[in-house]
Design a protein that fits this description.
By secondary structure, the protein is of the alpha+beta class. It contains 20 helices and 34 strands.
Length: 735
Amino acid sequence: MASHSDTLVVFFGATAGANGGKLGSDERELILLVWQIVDLHENKVGQLQRTLVQPDSADLSEQCKEETGLTAEELCKAEPLESVLQQFHQSVSAELKSLGRSSYTLCVDGPLLIRQVLHPEASKKNLVLPECFYTFVDLKKEFHKCCPNAGPVNDLTLTSMLDYVCIPAAVEQEAGLREVKNTVLLILHLLVEPYNHKFSTFETVNYKFESGACSKTEAVDSETVIRARGLPWQSSDQDIARFFKGLNIAKGGVALCLNAQGRRNGEALVRFINSEHRDMALDRHKHHMGNRYIEVYKATGEEFLKIAGGTSNEVAQFLSKENQVIIRMRGLPFTATPQDVLGFLGPDCPVTDGMEGLLFVKYPDGRPTGDAFVLFACEEYAQNALKKHKQILGKRYIELFRSTAAEVQQVLNRYMSTPLISTLPPPPPMVSMPVLATPPFITTGSTRDCIRLRGLPYIAAIEDILEFMGEHTIDIRPHGVHMVFNQQGRPSGDAFIQMKSADRAFMVAQKCHKKMMKDRYVEVFQCSTEEMSFVLMGGTLNRSGLSPPPCKLPCLSPPTYAAFSATPAMLPAEAALYQPPLLATPRTPQAPAHNPAPALAYYSPQLYMNMNMSYTTYYPSPPVSPSTVSYFAAPPGSVAAAVAAQQAPSILPPQPGALVRMQGLPYNAGVKDILSFFQGYQLQADSVLMLYNWSGQRSGEALVTFPSEKAARQAVAECSNLPFSGHPIRLACCE
């Protein structure tokens, strides 16, 4: 068989969108192909061929129309890409046979047509490209070898290369023909004196992605790594390699990122063979994988090694078997043995090397985590295994997912680096804050006089929480702020705050829910001290009550809840809105004792979780009441005035005027909508208080502060039962 350098096929293409240096950056389809054969031994050229390609969408950009002169009507009559590629292969093969040649290599003006257009489009359309499209000659790089002083490779164009060697450009009106003729002129010029160039350097496109292990000691160039974001959670390394089809990914160069719970977070770090391929990958920013667009950003070698690198000999030996498909099993019984797993998978999906193809994930003390990785020799066996997703082993259903070598490293690194006893950093210097001095203690109870903050910025300190609370900080019990940390001593984004009463906890939850802290909104929920204590000891909150910590802690009973029933002797009925709907009997409010000279106590900026808790990470869900207890709406009538008369003034922010209660609001109504409804009453945004139920959703009610009682009564008289987005609104003054 003749060498690939015997014959070149000059190949040119245009898309329905951007062309030239931006070819393929907008994900548009091919609409034009032009080619011509060049016999390098005889310095002869073949027939110039031009054909149109019918795209799925004939919507042409203005740039495309101007540069190619093509119209949508012409393209509708053309053949689809698959047929055009078959015509190309048949035409070139027939012409080669007449020249006595048997093989050829494509020659293109830069790699974009092959790498950024043809391979990605064929991959999306599930087309199998002929072998000739996996090897090509880059004319710019070949020209740079002959004329190194012509400038950087990336800056070269056909026009600049022709000008440098003093060759007049071909005069041709039709797009595509002009570019191919100029390329042929340049090739023929490089074949003769003074260059006598031999085309011997070929660019290649990888047929498939090769998985493999990566060591933490390996040097990774930061100019070769990108971060892909927005991936479907079920995507595998092969799916990511398919998204970057045409670009060469380094062996084992796809690292799927996991979140704190060990689940994929929709991000991946990808390492390419060089910076040129990395730069082309960045041009695929916001290209699509299915119906989702994927964001592509630069990343560093350190980030890649942190995710994909490993040091375990056991993992290295497990991953040393090449060309294997990796499946992750999750939710295995802790007593499961290799024989149990092999029996679960069955004979239709044999594991590579039997038990040696299994890797159980364990804690440092040898306890199983319920995870395992399995190797399969081919895609068929792996597909058979995935069909057993959520089938039962013992008394548990098992989840099966495609996995990667990098995910194996990441999961093993995470579990094996977890200390048996949490090692936390020393607390920073104490910060003084003027609060009443009381010994720090937590008394458990079912009264919901605490609040939980969820979604805090990880850099948030207690000072930030106190600033977030604003005027409600005076209602915090001394030493009542508790930050929740994970097993590595890092903030989990949660905090618990003990308030002086359940009423004040309720008001804070209503006033501060989804308020912003450092560009993030924070969710605020009311909870009990018993729920708070469970979480601080490592337990979890769920919809059916409390789950005790997994370590050997006392098993406490879940709290009991009693439906609220207003008692006039203790609290006016109108004030029931300020009582949690799921409280035990409310306590009689008492005015705080006045202390003319309060002592200074100190809040430690970090209060850690119990050091004896299990080292597994626990992320509590929002505290909610048992599903058997429903939400009880508060009765209409006067609300805030009665409460303000009997309680400390901090229950509601002290402000002049009169309150009006709104009922029947749409759940998507906001403060601006309410201000528009009361247009002409000179209300400010802080005059409106939206009310929420225990699931954190709006209850359809709001309190509005008017500048005077007269204005409030006038608003009730004029606006009651008026439509609000199609809903009649009920208004009542709070006496």
